[in-house]
DNA sequence: CCAAAACTGGCACTCAGTGGCACTTTAAGG
DNA sequence: CCTTAAAGTGCCACTGAGTGCCAGTTTTGG
């Protein structure tokens, strides 16, 4: 890796690490960007060249995760129906979340304690929704009705996923996330006609 | 109405009106709170006694709408199944939105042009989701499974509703919102098994 | 080794939002 | 009415996020 890249990666990591420490020790709002910069040995001005804002520090894997999700969506393109694709992806993420359970839970506690972070999380969900809508759209073909169906389905999908995650977080990550996920996707598939 | 109440209502309206004008003329971010205060003839400090933040000005009906929704949810409590309740409520709101179409569209254009406002909108959706989850929960009875089902359903519901609204906005409010809503709720009820 | 490009730091600035306190207005009882 | 407590307002000073600008440094590629 070229030197420049290396340094940038290092600075980025330093900022993330510094932020993580402070956020978890003193809380998000109690931490100023100046403090993070001081810890990371970087100027304030430079900070904003690495992160759009303070919130972004709380979601360092945002782009990674989205890209992985997109890749998985593409990969699941030839499954029998869209939901089956999601089921597979769900297994993957469920496993990953279970493995990193402690860190992820801590992260989520942080997010849930700060409205601004909750808002950012919704923004992320929106990205995922759009990604799914695009994928589903390819399946459903042309026409306004297909478009609507794809978007409805994506909306419902992110809705059940988020609800599932919240439940899992609330139960301290104890339940089997893969199972919860399948239950959620059953709902998506079968609907909620009681 | 006691004088004090009257005055407070007047100030609130003045602030909303001032903000609306500026927001639509110059945009949300280009408008400072000071300018709004000047227009409304009120001090900055007072502004923050009426609104939590600048964003709140863009959703003056937030609490009204939520309360109406809660009331309607309560009212629809004895419909055959939860989705039928939603169908009725959907008709009501669809009608209202169609009537105030122009204003609502303008408002939405504003919201969509500012990330911070989009974020607030998600926050509002979250309130609605919680409201629905609580209602559904009453239907589904006790137990963790019922709880999960209620939450999944609420998540899916808000998901399809939001997707529908976005579609409607995107089409400049031309489509029949009531029909779109029913289509969305069909999806919620029947699922998306293709 | 050199020039262009990329990156950094520091400064000054705007604006959102908060705490504190003195001052004015309203409500309510005698 | 008149008084007094409560509610509401204005002003001031302050913190902290985020931005524009420009001068100085580091890396890259030839």
How would you describe this structure in keywords?
about 190 residues, DNA-binding, mainly alpha, Tetracycline Repressor, domain 2, homodimer, 2 domains, Arc Repressor Mutant, subunit A
Could you walk me through the main structural features you see in this protein, from its secondary elements to its overall organization?
2 copies of one chain form a homodimer. With 194 residues, chain A is mainly alpha-helical. Chain A has 2 domains: 3-58, Orthogonal Bundle (Arc Repressor Mutant, subunit A), CATH 1.10.10.60; 62-190, Tetracycline Repressor, domain 2 (Orthogonal Bundle), CATH 1.10.357. Chain A is 77% helix and 0% strand. The first copy, chain A, has 9 helices and no strands. In chain A, helix 1 packs across helix 2 (33-40). The longest helix of chain A is centred in the last third of the chain and has 27 residues, at 144-170. The first copy, chain A, is globular, with a radius of gyration of 19 Å. The model of chain A has no long low-confidence stretch (mean pLDDT 96). Chain A binds chain B through residues 81-83, 115, 118-120, 122-123, 126, 129, 133, 139-140, 147-149, 151-164, 166-167, 180, 183-184, 187-194, and chain B through 81-83, 115, 118-120, 122-123, 126, 129, 133, 139-140, 147-149, 151-164, 166-167, 180, 183-184, 187-194. Chain A binds a DNA duplex (30 and 30 nucleotides) through helix 1 and helix 3.
């Amino acid at each position: 890796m070229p030197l420049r890249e290396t340094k940038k990666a290092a600075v980025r990591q330093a900022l993330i690490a510094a932020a993580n420490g402070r956020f978890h020790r003193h809380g998000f709002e109690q931490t100023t960007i100046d403090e993070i910069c001081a810890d990371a040995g970087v100027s304030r001005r430079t900070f904003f060249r690495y992160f759009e804002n303070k919130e972004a520090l709380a979601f360092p894997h945002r782009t990674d995760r989205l890209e992985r999700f997109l890749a998985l969506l593409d990969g699941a393109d030839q499954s029998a129906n869209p939901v089956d694709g999601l089921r597979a992806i769900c297994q993957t993420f469920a496993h990953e979340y279970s493995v990193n359970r402690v860190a992820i839970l801590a992260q989520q506690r942080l997010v849930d304690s700060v409205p601004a972070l909750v808002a950012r999380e919704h923004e992320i969900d929106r990205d995922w929704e759009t990604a799914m809508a695009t994928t589903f759209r390819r399946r459903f073909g042309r026409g306004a009705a297909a478009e609507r169906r794809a978007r409805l389905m994506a909306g419902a999908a992110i809705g059940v996923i988020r609800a599932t995650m919240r439940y899992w977080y609330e139960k301290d990550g104890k339940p089997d996330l893969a199972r919860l996920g399948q239950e959620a996707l059953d709902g998506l598939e079968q609907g909620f006609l009681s």
